[in-house]
Write a structure and sequence with these properties.
By secondary structure, this protein is mainly alpha-helical. It has helices at 6-33, 37-54, 58-78, 89-105, 117-135, 144-157, 168-181, 190-203, 265-281, 301-314, 325-337, 342-348, 355-359; strands at 211-218, 234-239, 252-256. A three-stranded antiparallel beta sheet has the order 1-2-3, covered by helices on one side. It is globular and about 60 Å long.
Amino acid sequence: MSCSTPEGQHVLRTLTLAPASRRLRLSVTRVLGGPGETRRLGRITKATDQLKCASINSSTVHTYPKKFQHWTAFCEEFRFPVWIDELSQESQARIVGLFARMCSLEGHNAHGKGNKYQTFDGKMAAVAYAHKSERNARLNYKSPEIELIAQGYLRTNSHVDRKQPVTSPMLSEMHRLLQQERSKENGDQPDPQWGSVVSAFFCLDRGSELWGPAAKVRDRYGSPVGPGTGEAYSVEILFRSHKGDRVRQGNTIRHYKSGQGVIYFVTTADTCFNIRKRWKADGRCLDPYLTSISMTTMIKKSDVAKLIKKAARTQGADTNNFSTHSMLISGTCALLAMGKSETVIRLMGRWFAWCFSVYT
């Protein structure tokens, strides 16, 4: 049925859309007026909350309430409003500036020691997240006024606990020490620990405790292969998240085979996956992370730090100059020495924080 006049076409469209509109109203009535209305709405509400939680990693969400408590305690002590989204930029900058000064002087710890800039940045991220989740308000704590305060914090705090990067000879020495410690009691334990060291070096991180299992291990033709076959040419690792990294969470990092022998990420990762496969076949339950050794335990950063200090001691270096932070900066310094672009390094690593400007 058709009509050539505009008035007739309008009547036809109205008659055509009327049944659809009536069906839509009936569907909505059935959904909201049925006996399972409460249960359905409950499921929808729960699913909505799950989507909100999925927007940021759970390990980050767990640290935010504690950090936000520091902000509320500061506001209550000085009688400032906890929610500052409706204040002017000048008032926000004044309150955040006082909070930054208190963090740099006292922090929130038993020793009364000032916080590093990265800790302060994490606290402000928790404040912004609380404003977004509780009041649906976007708090721009990166405004020019607050950025000026942050730069001052950065400059006065950048000299604190500066560590030395781990060099290639130190990595080789760490591998040698781990091989010496291999015994029947610890079995394959040195291999995941070495995997934690190598992944931190190549992925520009402190450790591998947040690196998930490989999405795929591929051969040189791009076909998936199993661990332990000796055909691994590239490996893809899922980065779960770090409490201070709200940018790279959920990203997949791919590394390819290189000409190195011991310091070789693809082979090391393939070894870790092969060990995981054997452990699971033996009935051991493991976390989904790369260096997990049980359902609740992974290779600890403290163990990696002890290994770094032990290698430094054997090479005659001061152990106080090394920690797991040395792994974070060592890969970056190696890339800079090779002439790689600073932009590429910033995109690859977690260098939105103060580290890059301090060590480069």
